[in-house]
TrEMBL record:
InterPro entries: Calcineurin-like_PHP (IPR004843), Metallo-depent_PP-like (IPR029052), Metallophosphoesterase_PAP (IPR051558), TAT_signal (IPR006311). Residues 63-72 have a biased composition (Low complexity). It holds the Pfam family Metallophos. It comes from the Bacteria. Residues 94-318 form the Calcineurin-like phosphoesterase domain. This is Metallophosphoesterase. Residues 63-85 are annotated as: Disordered. PROSITE patterns: TAT.
Length: 407
C-alpha cells in the first residue's frame, strides 16, 4: 500500500470505549501494544488514582539543557518583561487566546474585552495558541500582517505573548494545509523585532519565575504531525530529525522541570469535542502518517499525558474545558480557539467536559498560585466588546511532582 494512501474515516473512541479496550487487553495479560504511555498490565483506573494523587518523585542527575529550554529571554528591543513575581492576588495570571489572526472585527472585539481585564486581573503574560496569521502565514519576516493581525489588535496588552505555530502559519499554496513548515521560521524571526511576540524558536519552554519556577510552559510545534498533506521535506517528516528532536526535547524538559505546575501549549488538541475531532482521528480521515494526527496522538499519550497538568490548544474555534480522565492520565485538555472565529454551535463528540461552548467568541484566563490552578472562561459579545465570565474551574493537585536536582 502506498504510504500516503487515503484510509477510510475512523471515529475516535469514547472514554468508555477506551476503558473497555484497556480492560480487554489486560484480561489476556501483558500486551506489547505501544500506543499510550500506560503499561497495559497496569489497570487504568488504578493509574488515574495514582496520577491524581501525585506521581512518584523524579530525581535527575542533571536537568536537560537545550537552547530551547532556557530561562525567558528578551525579545525585540524594549520587549515587555516576563513577570518575576505574582500579582497582588498572589497569582501569575495569563491571558489565553487562540486562532486569533484574522485582523477582523471579532479579533479586535475579543482583544478589547481582554484588555479591559488585564488590569483588574493583574495579567502579566499572554498565550497565542497558533493560527496567528491567517490564511497562509507571513510572507516575510516583517510582513505587514504582523501589524494588522497581531500588534494593532493587541495594542495595550503590554505583556510577553508566548506564541506557537498553527497550521495556517505554515501553509503554502493550500491555506491551512500545514504543508510548508519552514514558513514558521518567519514567525521566529519576527520575535527579534517585536515587544510582544515571544517565539525564540519553533518549540521552547518558559519557567515562571525563572529562578524558582512555580509554573513552566512548554510550547510545541504540532504541525508536521498533523498536516492535511504529507510532508515532502525530509527534515519535517513525522519521523524526520526535526520531530524526533522535538519529542526528545519535550520528554527531557518535562522530566527536568522543577515547576509545581506544567502546561503544554500546542495548536492541535489531544482530545476535542469540536468538529475537527481528536488527535488520531482529526476530521475523520487518515492519509498515511498525516491528516489524522496519529503520531501527535502517540506523542501526547507517551510524553505528555500524566506528566503535564494542562494541554492548552486551539485549532477548533471553540471554548472547551475538558475533564481529566483515566485516558489522559489526569492531564486536563483545554481548547481555546475562539478568539476571532466561531464554530457550528454543537458538540460533535462526547469527551467528558467541565464546560464547553461551541457558539461564542471568547478567551480564557489561567491563574496560577502554589495552591491551585484556576481557569476562567470568558465569552465575548462582539457588538459591545464586553466579556462575560462563563465558567471557572479549579484544580489543586499537580499531576506530577517536580524534579529535584541532587543537593
Ligand atoms: Fe488550525
Amino acid at each position: 500500500m502506498c504510504e500516503d494512501e487515503l484510509i477510510p474515516p475512523q471515529a475516535d473512541m469514547t472514554e468508555r470505549e477506551w476503558l473497555r479496550a484497556g480492560s480487554e487487553t489486560t484480561a489476556g495479560g501483558p500486551s506489547m501494544r505501544t500506543t499510550g504511555r500506560v503499561p497495559q498490565w497496569v489497570n487504568r483506573r488504578t493509574l488515574l488514582g495514582g496520577a491524581m494523587a501525585g506521581a512518584a518523585l523524579t530525581v535527575l542527575p542533571s536537568p536537560a539543557q537545550s537552547p530551547a529550554s532556557a530561562a525567558p529571554r528578551l525579545g525585540g528591543p524594549g520587549a515587555f518583561p516576563f513577570p518575576e513575581h505574582p500579582n497582588g492576588k498572589g497569582e501569575f495570571a495569563v491571558l489565553v487566546t487562540g486562532d486569533a489572526g484574522t485582523g477582523d472585527e471579532a479579533q479586535y472585539a475579543v482583544a478589547a474585552a481582554a484588555r479591559d481585564l488585564c488590569r483588574t486581573e493583574g495579567i502579566g503574560l499572554a498565550v497565542g495558541l497558533g493560527d496567528n496569521i491567517y490564511e497562509n502565514g507571513p510572507e516575510s519576516d516583517d510582513d505587514s500582517e504582523f501589524q494588522d493581525k497581531f500588534e494593532k489588535p493587541n495594542s495595550g496588552i503590554d505583556v510577553p505573548w508566548l506564541m506557537v505555530l498553527g497550521n495556517h502559519d505554515c501553509s503554502g499554496l493550500i491555506p491551512g494545509s500545514g504543508g510548508d513548515p519552514s514558513r514558521g521560521d518567519r514567525e521566529v524571526a519576527y520575535a527579534a523585532t517585536s515587544r510582544r511576540w515571544y517565539m525564540p524558536s519553533r518549540y521552547y519552554s518558559v519557567p515562571l519565575p525563572a529562578a524558582d519556577p512555580l509554573v513552566e510552559f512548554f510550547a510545541i510545534d504540532t504541525i508536521p504531525w498533523s498536516s492535511y498533506v504529507a510532508q515532502l521535506d525530509p527534515h519535517y517528516r513525522w519521523d524526520g530529525p526535526y520531530m524526533r528532536e522535538q519529542r526528545s526535547w519535550l520528554d527531557g524538559a518535562l522530566r527536568a522541570s522543577r515547576a509545581r505546575w506544567k502546561v503544554v501549549i500546542g495548536h492541535h488538541p489531544y482530545l476535542n469535542n469540536g468538529k475537527h475531532g481528536s488527535a488520531g482521528s482529526y476530521d475523520g480521515f487518515e492519509i498515511g502518517n498525516y491528516t489524522s494526527g496519529v503520531h501527535l496522538k502517540d506523542m501526547y499519550e507517551n510524553v505528555v499525558c500524566g506528566r503535564a497538568d494542562l494541554i492548552l490548544s486551539g485549532h477548533d474555534h471553540t471554548l472547551q474545558i475538558l475533564e481529566p480522565t483515566a485516558r489522559t492520565g489526569g492531564t486536563r485538555q483545554v481548547v481555546c480557539g475562539a478568539s476571532a472565529k466561531t464554530e457550528d454551535g454543537k458538540a460533535h463528540f462526547g469527551h467528558p467536559a467541565a464546560w464547553q461552548n461551541f457558539s461564542d467568541n471568547g478567551f480564557m484566563v489561567l491563574k496560577v498560585s502554589g495552591a491551585r490552578l484556576t481557569i476562567d472562561a470568558y465569552t465575548v459579545d462582539v457588538a459591545t466588546r464586553k466579556a462575560t465570565l462563563a465558567h471557572r474551574t479549579h484544580q489543586t493537585r499537580p499531576v506530577a511532582a517536580p524534579a529535584r536536582t541532587h543537593a
